[in-house]
TrEMBL record:
Source organism of the structure: Streptomyces hygroscopicus
Keywords recorded for this protein, A-Z: Transcription, Transcription regulation
Keyword Transmembrane helix: no
UniProt-listed InterPro entries: Homeodomain-like_sf, HTH_AraC, RmlC-like_jellyroll, RmlC_Cupin_sf
Top-rank taxon, per record: Bacteria
Classification of source organism: Bacteria, Bacillati, Actinomycetota, Actinomycetes, Kitasatosporales
Annotated Gene3D superfamilies: Homeodomain-like, Jelly Rolls
UniProt domain HTH araC/xylS-type: residue ranges: 159-256
Name of protein: AraC family transcriptional regulator
Length: 262
């Protein structure tokens, strides 16, 4: 994964942008260290890709999704590709309309325009910002979660197994092979994936690979190179998996990053 880099155009204090809707261009690999906010926070990458990390795991949002973090929920951010990031504070009295945990939602055309307006345009009439933000919250309250969430385990054996995959997402090991390394049976690990992470081993590893694929595609690797680097046996199976999770093909995702996908 890219290393942290800083730029003078980025916010030096992660709380500062939440005083109002703000827009920042952040460089590839930029990272905001763990912090929390008194208010809720919406983060939208109008271009590029955003990863939000909490003690519960990692959420990834490409440019067709928006990230929600509730008040006082410790989190950090990583940005992949030159990212047009929009930060929007959600007052406490509106936060109760949204889920009480970090999540990612699909961005409809209406929602995209509202998020851009909140961060691009100064408030010309008193209360206009609040009224538009209420529309955004209403849209999100009715939207289904589309979280690219990679939960983190608590059990030591499961943590050891997932750590091996974090180190090498392309690792072709079966659950039984991972079990032999960490000292747990295939059945035990399978049960732990379901009980602790609420997903199968296959689903968790696919999500992990998609996280890395988004970073590789943003970094300019081809679809074929990304498929190989992330452990898919052929580009077609990678394209199918990516499209199912992200909602667009990897080629379209890269075209949108370049600005020629419209």
């Amino acid at each position: 994964m890219p290393k942290t880099r800083h730029t003078s155009t980025a916010p030096s204090d992660p709380e500062a942008p939440l005083l109002r809707g703000s827009a920042w261009w952040l460089p590839h690999g930029y990272q905001l260290d763990p912090h929390s906010h008194v208010q809720g926070q919406l983060v939208y990458a109008a271009a590029g890709t955003l990863a939000t990390v909490t003690e519960r795991g990692t959420w990834v949002a490409p440019a067709n999704r928006v990230t929600w973090t509730p008040p006082r929920f410790a989190h950090s951010h990583r940005f992949y590709g030159r990212t047009d990031v929009r930060l929007i504070a959600v007052p406490l009295d509106l936060c109760g309309e949204l889920v009480g945990h970090p999540s990612v939602f699909a961005v409809s055309p209406l929602l995209r325009e509202a998020l851009l307006a909140l961060t691009d345009k100064p408030e010309r009439r008193s209360g206009a910002h609040r009224r538009l933000l209420t529309v955004v919250v209403d849209e999100l309250a009715d939207a289904a979660e589309q979280s690219l969430h990679l939960p983190e385990p608590r059990d030591d054996r499961l943590r050891a197994a997932t750590a091996l995959l974090h180190e090498d997402p392309a690792r072709p090991a079966t659950l039984a092979e991972l079990g032999r390394v960490v000292g747990a049976s295939e059945r035990t690990l399978s049960r732990l994936f379901h009980t602790e992470l609420s997903m199968s081993f296959h689903r968790w590893r696919t999500t992990l690979r998609i996280h890395h694929a988004l970073a590789h595609l943003t970094d300019g690797l081809s679809v074929t190179e990304t498929a190989v680097a992330c452990g898919w046996s052929n580009p077609s199976s990678f394209i199918d998996a990516f499209t199912e999770v992200i909602g667009q093909t990897p080629g379209r995702y890269q075209a949108d990053l370049r600005g020629d996908g419209k």
